[in-house]
Write a structure and sequence with these properties.
elongated, WH_DNA-bd_sf, RrF2 family transcriptional regulator, 137 residues, Arc Repressor Mutant, subunit A, Tscrpt_reg_Rrf2, TR_Rrf2-type_CS
Length: 137
């Protein structure tokens, strides 16, 4: 499955915001960009999509920044996809020709299964995985 760079960066930025989430703390754009090695110019566009999707809040100014709009356990990968790359889950197969209907139904089923699996993964679980310490021998 091919994931766009935009969707990957959105997930990574949200994991950083989930790690800092306490309902009060704001994370600055430059800090997010640095931690995830992402261009700040590209990241601000992604954060705007996430804000419009209701997943984050922002405050302008010297003490401004970004924060999750709600707890990380209530944000799913499906919501992130819907906010940043809604076409990712759209089925574009056509029901033309003798086999078109069967092929279209198969892709619809696969798309629905993917959507259901995306609902099962929360930002909290991603954040916990990202925070697990690595041990080297």
């Amino acid at each position: 499955m091919k994931i766009s760079q935009k969707l990957e960066y959105a997930c990574r930025a949200l994991v950083q915001l989930a790690k800092a989430y306490d309902g009060k703390t704001l994370t600055r754009l430059d800090e997010l960009a640095q931690r995830e090695a992402v261009s700040a110019n590209f990241l601000v566009q992604i954060l705007n999509d996430l804000r419009r999707g209701g997943l984050i809040e922002s405050r302008r100014g010297a003490s401004g920044g970004y924060s999750l709009s709600r707890s990380a356990d209530s944000i799913t990968l499906r919501q992130i996809v819907d906010a940043v790359e809604p076409s990712q889950l759209q089925n574009t197969a056509l029901a033309q020709g003798e086999s078109g209907g069967a092929v279209k139904r198969a892709w619809e089923d696969i798309s629905e299964q993917l959507a259901q699996n995306l609902e099962k993964v929360t930002l909290e679980s991603l954040s916990a995985q990202a925070s697990d310490p690595m041990f080297y021998i």
